[in-house]
Design goal:
Strand order of the largest sheet of chain A: 6-7-8-3-9-10
Number of strands of chain B: 0
Oligomer: heterodimer
Distance between the termini of chain B: 29 Å
Radius of gyration of chain A: 23 Å
Largest sheet of chain B: none
Radius of gyration of chain B: 18 Å
Shape of chain A: elongated
Number of helices of chain B: 12
Strand content of chain B: under 5%
Structural class of chain B: mainly alpha
Structural class of chain A: alpha/beta
Amino acid sequence: MDNNVGIQVNNLTKYYGKVAAVDHITFTVSKGEFFGFLGPNGAGKTTTVRILTGVIKADEGSASILGYQAGSLMAKQLIGVVPEMTNPYVDLSGWENLKLMADLYGIPSSVARERGSQLMQEVGLYPRKDSLVRTYSKGMKQRLILCLALISDPDVLFLDEPTSGLDVQSAQLIKDMLQRLNSEGKTIFLTTHDMDEANELCNRVAVINDGKIVAIDAPEKLRMATSGMHSVEVSFDRMVSAEALGNIPGVNRVRRLGDKYRLYTADPGELVVSVINYSSSNGLKIISLNTLAPSLEDAFIALTEKTGKNV
Amino acid sequence: MSDMGTALQQARRCLAIARKDMRIYYIKGPVIIFGVLFPVFLFLSFAIGRQLSADFMIPGLLGMILFFTATSVSPVVVPWEAQARTLERLMSCPVKIETIVAGDILASFAFGLVISPVPIILGLALGVTISGPVIFTLAVILAAFCFASLGTLFSVPPTNVPATANMIAAAIRFPVVFISGIFIPLSELPAWAQGVAYISPLTYFTDIARRCIQGQAHLPVAVDFLVLLAFTLIFFTVAMRLHGRTMPKRI
């Protein structure tokens, strides 16, 4: 096996009844890579993470973490996990939760004390370390969960929607911490709905839809490869119908965003001229007009819609 | 790592899980008080108004308290953890499912042992004497482990609703108490009832306790121990195997 492989997934499949929640997916994550796993709800992201972290077993295929079979004690010893829907023990203090995790990973007490103090200070929980977790806010709980995942100083970190529903400060703190950990050489596997987050953090992303991988590439390459997803964002001094804008030559699709319209096109330069002509011929005043390159979100929508239609 | 190394490592982690269970689920005023009071009142409702000696009452009371305490919380620990969303974290740690289940059994066993002196001290205060204290102590330890394993077995169905697990436990625990020679000695039961009594592990503990406190028993002590040991091994092994199958289904 290549020494540079952090996570190797081959033909991994999981059925729930007759439905393939994860359908023969194959990908490789290099050591030290920040890998994003994107997909709409029910696409198979969490099921994949649960298989890779050994919580459930795959029905077909194989997966390994740093050369060890996913789910084996050795593989579990090397990973840290922030599951999507999990809680710390609310009847224990933050510190007791950390101590429990350290015991379950076989971390010596002195190391656990030092590392735990450092982690809790880093996430701003140290002053509340002896308070019961039931008194923590959601953001504090999520920061504690990240500390629990890091107490064993894992080589590979799995995070399933770690910033979902958090306040801006907590989400930013977690993202900064993940960037630092990745720069220190840790392999990070992140599932997220947040395209900006994936764009900001990940070296590569995989898009999964209906249990199948539909694309794997660097966020920028995925974005640029989305043909026909350039857009012109325009707002007028009064409302116009989306249907009328859709009839402007060169417009592939229209999306209303508040008081603006986003017109998707393959040729934004030509569309700007057409929009100006449309506004003058209809007596409309343009309030704002911008051309936009495709975002990762556009790429994601294009990829997941395309595969969705094939079902 | 060698098999022995892995076994020792898992044993240490099993202790950590048992400590967590004790701290979260057992060392709570209501759990401790209910664990003692419920069997006491159940027993008193039977004993009051009847001419019963302390020698007769204490073995039955001890059996009931040990049985109820060791099976009181263990049926709901796994459903609770699944419902509180702590189970997935536990399962992603480097511990086997068997280690998690053994930790739960260990906590339940310890709770049963910690509570068991209450009826024993009450009995000593009422003037009962214990002949064969070593046999008696061994029986208490074995029975506590047996009942703790049984309690964990109640939570095998993959429901994440603690009340459902409790209902399953109650549906088995109450009939077991009534068929185990707690209220009526085995020797006074009709033959068919004795046949039913033999399928209850509590019967064998109560028989040993009656031997040590009342000085009379229905079965030879070796038979009581062997059957209790067999029940323990069966409950423990089956709990491990079945939780191995059903625990991932809770996630």
